Amino acid sequence: QVRLVESGGGLVQPGGSLRLSCTASGFTMAYYAIAWFRQAPGKEREGLSCISASDGKIYWADSVKGRFTISRDNAKNTVYLEMNSLNSDDTAVYHCATPAVETYYCPPEPEFRSWGLGTQVTVSS
């Protein structure tokens, strides 16, 4: 079974940094596009970034572009999200996701079928 597990969330002060991890089991992550999403209370889920498997092309939401960095370590079957200059608007549950079948490019959001349970990020003084 495809399984994704996020880790690395926690409480951080404004201006701080966190590094989230998304570790896969049941499939070889190198053959799949992987995306990060977040959802804050009372808000719609927001797509943040996607990294392709075919050529490593990366897409960013305007809200985090320039502050967050996505990367992958295929040997560890893990994708990372490095978050810098955090502010209260970044408080949310962060999820990683992947399509149900091998997909090398970053597809439209409905094609992401496998989701992790998420990790909480709270930015507060």
Describe the model:
By secondary structure, the chain is mostly beta strands. It has strands at residues 3-7, 10-12, 18-25, 34-39, 46-51, 58-60, 68-73, 78-83, 92-99, 112-115, 119-123. Strands 2, 4, 5, 6, 9, 10 and 11 form a seven-stranded mixed sheet that branches. Strand 4 and strand 5 (46-51) form a beta hairpin. It starts with a strand and ends with a strand.
Compact description:
The protein has strands spanning 3-7, 10-12, 18-25, 34-39, 46-51, 58-60, 68-73, 78-83, 92-99, 112-115, 119-123.
Fold blueprint:
Elements: E1 3-7, E2 10-12, E3 18-25, E4 34-39, E5 46-51, E6 58-60, E7 68-73, E8 78-83, E9 92-99, E10 112-115, E11 119-123
Parallel strand pairs: 2-11
Antiparallel strand pairs: 1-3, 3-8, 4-5, 4-9, 5-6, 7-8, 9-10, 9-11
Distance between the termini: 40 Å
Q: Work out the helicity level.
A: under 10%
Mean pLDDT: 94
Structural class: mainly beta
Poorly predicted residue ranges: none
Strand residues, percent: over 45%
Counted by DSSP, the helix tally is: 0
Q: How many strand elements?
A: 11
Write the H/E string, N to C.
EEEEEEEEEEE
Largest sheet: 7 strands, mixed
Cα-atom radius of gyration: 14 Å
Overall geometry comes to globular
